[in-house]
Specification:
The complex is a heterodimer of chains A (about 35) and B (about 450). Chain A is mainly beta and about 35 residues long. Helices cover about 0% and strands about 70% of the residues of chain A. Chain A contains no helices and two strands. In chain A, strands 1-2 form a two-stranded antiparallel ribbon. Chain A is rod-shaped and about 40 Å long. The two termini of chain A are about 20 Å apart. In chain A, about 20% of the residues are buried. With about 450 residues, chain B is α+β, with helices and mostly antiparallel strands. Chain B has nine helices and 24 strands. In chain B, the strands form four sheets. In chain B, strands 6, 7, 8, 9, 10, 11 and 12 form a seven-stranded mixed sheet that branches. In chain B, a hairpin with an 8-residue loop joins strand 8 and strand 9 (about 200-205). The longest helix of chain B is centred in the first third of the chain and has 9 residues, at about 125-135. The chains are: A mainly beta (about 35), B alpha+beta (about 450). The interface between A and B is medium-sized, with 25 and 34 residues.
């Protein structure tokens, strides 16, 4: 069966570092269900 | 049987081919046997990644965030953040190569994120721009690269011994050794081959390879190797490595010798032919012969499992407007099954004995893919799905005449998404240019 069904989308705080400094944004990424 | 000559490979560019002809690549999720085939659903247009920034004057390697504009198999058309609707700097990238990361990877890896040179002055505050663009957007799973790496590991190893169909006598098997594994495709060398050139190519999930002892266990013909000296390091491939077939109950109504059916001709995959069950073996396997082209000794019989998607009940072609190849020498054409069954004093195999599953495969007419030329199984070629009949696909090899087309099952391990050759390092045969063909 497909693994997709064992994954789910979660909101993640993602760190981004550019020349202007480091900051975080909230994005979606799928992850294996715990 | 028709087989194509190998074409010298110039650098074939899937991205340009897809864009210039506004084509669609079959989704990776159509191919359960390929790396990431069972967990590709999260990859879609709009997903953001961190990739190398090739639009820079800096000497050091820098990265930037890009969004997926279009997907074709493993290939994605990416656009750096900041270009908005400007497609001039779009570029195609194989999503499964190491240099594709989820957003956040640069910060955690200490890699510099630098905007492309072309637009570096477009925004005075990139931070505000990126927060606005990325908040609520999707990115790759954190374990994406790990999963790709896991999926590119194959259980078959060099020097493993298998039983495989004898390509010169389809009715029997021989022992062969795994000589090479590329993307799950095996190059097998028959054990007796002195110079290592007598080989056979197939995918590790092919129904044509089996564990040592399989032929004896089901009553299939087998050519014993007269090899006296064993190569060091040889080992029999574990039975667990081979594709499992469905258990069948042969005690009830079952196939019988002489029953008629329709079958894809393994020596000419563009044809579905009138065929006969010649011998019922154990575990649901059948020896089948194509009517009109059978050697007296049965040496051209071939083995299909009763659940094989390559055999069909009488009438399948007519119902689906597929040309049925009549027995060579049978003059009452077009063939009428009732007449033929009466003329041959035979009966049709019961419909209920055939595999009637139709997976939700996802293929659509016109989709592009990489397909094995099953008449020359070394070759993986640029191809198109030109027709779909339930789970049966008509595969056309771009640039070649239709007579090279092949009927292939939607779950065949010999079909691959766009970009599979690049990912696995397998040589891709480009569309045949007119000159090369001639």
């Amino acid at each position: 069966g497909s693994e997709a069904s064992s994954r789910k989308w979660e909101q993640k705080q993602v760190q981004i570092k550019t020349l202007e400094g480091e900051f975080s944004v909230t994005m979606w990424a799928s992850d294996a269900k715990k | 049987a028709k087989s194509k000559a190998v074409i010298p490979v110039e650098s074939f560019d899937w991205g340009r081919y897809i864009c210039s002809n506004n084509l669609v690549g079959a989704p990776v999720s159509c191919f359960k046997h390929v790396p990431m085939g069972t967990c590709w659903g999260d990859i879609s247009e709009g997903v953001r990644v961190e990739v190398i920034n090739s639009d820079t004057a800096l000497s050091t390697k820098v990265y930037w965030i890009a969004g997926i504009v279009k997907i074709a198999g493993f290939q994605a058309l990416l656009r750096y953040e900041g270009f908005d609707s400007d497609s001039s700097k779009d570029f195609w990238y194989n999503l499964c190569v190491p240099e594709v990361h989820p957003v956040g990877w640069c910060a955690s890896s200490g890699k510099p994120l630098v905007p492309p040179k072309t637009i570096q002055h477009k925004y005075s505050n990139w931070k505000a721009f990126l927060v606005k663009r990325l908040t609520g957007a999707k990115t790759l799973p954190p374990d994406f690269a790990t999963k790709v790496h896991e999926n590119l590991q194959y259980p078959f190893k060099k020097l493993m011994r298998v039983e495989v169909v004898d390509k010169t006598h389809l009715c029997r098997t021989r022992v062969a050794l795994v000589e090479q594994v590329t993307g799950g495709r095996l190059r097998l060398v028959y054990e007796e081959s002195q110079d290592g050139t007598d080989d056979f190519w197939c995918h590790m999930h092919s129904p044509l390879i089996h564990c040592i002892g399989w032929s004896r266990s089901i009553g299939h013909r087998f050519k014993r190797s007269d090899v006296s000296k064993k190569v060091e390091g040889q080992m029999d491939a574990s039975p667990q490595l081979f594709q499992k077939v469905k258990d069948v109950d042969q005690s009830g109504e079952w196939f019988k010798d002489g029953m008629k059916l329709e079958a894809i001709d393994p020596l000419n995959l563009s044809a579905i032919c009138v065929a006969t069950v010649r011998k019922v073996l154990a575990d649901g396997y059948l020896m089948i012969g194509i009517d009109g082209s059978e050697a007296a000794d049965g040496s051209d019989w071939f083995c299909y499992h009763s659940c094989s998607p390559s055999i069909f009940p009488v009438g399948f072609c007519e119902i689906n407007s597929i040309e049925l190849t009549p027995p060579r020498g049978y003059t009452k054409l077009p063939l009428n099954w009732f007449d033929y069954l009466r003329d041959t004093g035979s009966i049709a195999a019961p419909v209920k004995l055939f595999n009637q599953d139709v997976p939700n495969h996802g293929f659509q007419q016109g989709m592009k893919l990489e397909a094995v030329d099953l008449m020359e199984p070394r070759l993986v070629c640029v191809a198109t799905v030109t027709r779909i009949v339930h789970r049966l696909l008509r595969i056309h090899f771009d640039g070649w005449e239709d007579e090279y087309d092949q009927w292939v099952d939607c779950r065949s391990p010999d079909l691959y998404p766009v970009g599979w050759c690049q990912l696995t390092g397998y040589q891709l045969q480009p569309p045949a240019a007119q000159s090369a063909r001639e």
